[in-house]
Design brief:
Length: 391
C-alpha cells in the first residue's frame, strides 16, 4: 500500500490541476481510505490513459498533419518541380521545335539555293554553248569577211593595176605586181615635173566628111589611135586618153627615166612618121584625099599632178593646157612652149637645134613656139630603171 501510495504520490505530478480539483470534489464519497481511493486511481489512470491516448492521437494527428503538410508541401513541391520540369521540357521542346524549324527553313533555303545554282549553271552552260556557237559563227563570219576584204583589196589592186597597166609599157606593167615602189609612185599625191604631149589630127572634121562612109572613118581613127598609143608606150610615155581626134600623154622622170624630155620629143617625131605612112596607105577609105592632112603636136614642160579620176590615171596642170593649145599648130609640126625649150637647152644643149615660129592662140593672140631637133644618132638615151631591171 505504501508502494501504491508512493506510486500515487509519484503520479500526482502527471495529473493536471483541474483534474486534481475533480478528485478533491469526489473525495466526499462514502468510500473510505484506500478502498475509496482505488477507483479514483483507476479513473485517474483511465483519465491519464485517455489523455495520453488523446495526446498520442493529437501527436499522431499532429505528426500526420505535419506529415500531410509535409506530404502536401512535398507533393506541391514535386508538382512544382514536375511543372517546372514540364515547362523546362516544354521550353526545350519549343526550342527544339524552333531549331527544327530553323533547320527545316535552312534546309529549304539551302535546297532552293542549290536549285537556283543548278538553274544558273544550266543557264551559264546554255549561254556558253550559245556563245560558243555564236563565237564559231562569228569566227567563221570574221574569216569570211577577211577573205572578202582580201578579195576586194585584190580586186581593187588588180583593177587599179589594170587601169595603170593599160597605160604604160608592157614590161613596166608586169613589174607593177612585184615592184611596189613603182606602184607607190603612181599613188603619190604630189606635183611632178612632166612633159605633156598633146596630139591633134588637124582638119579631122574635113577628113571625116571626105571618108567613103562612117565605118571607114571610124576604122581609120581607131587604128590611128592604137598606133599612136603604141609609140607613146614604146618611148616610155604614159598614155592618158584618146580625145576623139587625138591623144594626150605625159612623161615623167619617176617612170620614163632621166631622159624623159628626149623620150617625149622622140615619140612626137615617130608619131608624125606613123600618121603620114598610115594615111598614105589608107587613101582608099576616102572619096577625096586631101594634101594638108597631118598631126599637130604641142609639147610643154612644167609641174603637174598625176591623179586618178574614177580609177583612171590622168594628168592635170598648167603644162596640159598649153600643150593642147600648141597642138593647134600646122599639120606635121611639133611646137614646144618656152618651158620645154628651156629644159631641153639645159640638158641637151650640144645636141639641140631650135627653130622659132609663131602660133595664133585662140583668145590669147600670137605667141612664140619652138620646133626642137635633137640629134638622136649621137645622143645615147638611158632607159628607165624598170626596163633595165626586167632585162
Amino acid at each position: 500500500m505504501e508502494e501504491e501510495s508512493n506510486s500515487a504520490d509519484s503520479n500526482e505530478h502527471l495529473i493536471p490541476d483541474k483534474q486534481n480539483d475533480s478528485i478533491d470534489e469526489n473525495s466526499s464519497d462514502t468510500l473510505p481510505g484506500s478502498a475509496l481511493n482505488f477507483p479514483k486511481q483507476i479513473n485517474t489512470i483511465n483519465n491519464m490513459s485517455s489523455f495520453s491516448a488523446a495526446q498520442s492521437v493529437a501527436e499522431a494527428l499532429k505528426r500526420t498533419n505535419t506529415l500531410n503538410s509535409m506530404s502536401s508541401f512535398s507533393a506541391a513541391q514535386s508538382v512544382a518541380e514536375a511543372l517546372k520540369r514540364t515547362n523546362t521540357l516544354n521550353s526545350m521542346s519549343r526550342e527544339h521545335q524552333m531549331q527544327e524549324n530553323v533547320i527545316q527553313e535552312n534546309y529549304s533555303s539551302s535546297l532552293k539555293l542549290k536549285k537556283d545554282i543548278i538553274e544558273l549553271e544550266k543557264q551559264i552552260l546554255e549561254f556558253e554553248n550559245k556563245y560558243s556557237e555564236k563565237s564559231e559563227e562569228h569566227k567563221e563570219a570574221t574569216e569570211e569577211l577577211e577573205k572578202l576584204k582580201v578579195l576586194i583589196e585584190t580586186y581593187d589592186s588588180k583593177s587599179k593595176l589594170n587601169h595603170i597597166a593599160s597605160k604604160i609599157h608592157p614590161e613596166a606593167a608586169n613589174l607593177l605586181y612585184s615592184n611596189h615602189d613603182l606602184l607607190k609612185e603612181f599613188d603619190k599625191d604630189t606635183s611632178r615635173n612632166v612633159t605633156v604631149l598633146s596630139i591633134d589630127i588637124r582638119r579631122s572634121t574635113e577628113l571625116m566628111l571626105k571618108a567613103k562612109d562612117p565605118h571607114s572613118y571610124a576604122l581609120f581613127i581607131s587604128e590611128i589611135a592604137v598606133g599612136l598609143k603604141e609609140i607613146i608606150l614604146a618611148n616610155f610615155g604614159i598614155f592618158d586618153k584618146f580625145t576623139g581626134d587625138g591623144i594626150l600623154a605625159f612623161f615623167s622622170e619617176f617612170y620614163s627615166g632621166k631622159d624623159f624630155l628626149a623620150h617625149s620629143l622622140k615619140a612626137a617625131n615617130e608619131c608624125h612618121e606613123f600618121f603620114n605612112k598610115y594615111y598614105n596607105l589608107n587613101r582608099n577609105k576616102f572619096k577625096i584625099v586631101m594634101k594638108d592632112i597631118g598631126l599637130g603636136i604641142g609639147i610643154d614642160y612644167g609641174e603637174a599632178n598625176i591623179i586618178k579620176i574614177n580609177n583612171e590615171l590622168t594628168v592635170i596642170g598648167n603644162p596640159v593646157v598649153y600643150a593642147c593649145r600648141f597642138s593647134g599648130c600646122q599639120p606635121n609640126q611639133t611646137l614646144s612652149n618656152q618651158g620645154m625649150v628651156d629644159a631641153l637647152r639645159e640638158k641637151y644643149d650640144s645636141y639641140l637645134n631650135i627653130e622659132e615660129s609663131l602660133i595664133d592662140i585662140k583668145h590669147e593672140g600670137k605667141a612664140f613656139g619652138y620646133t626642137a631637133y635633137l640629134n638622136f644618132n649621137k645622143l645615147q638615151l638611158i632607159n628607165p630603171f624598170w626596163l633595165r631591171d626586167s632585162n
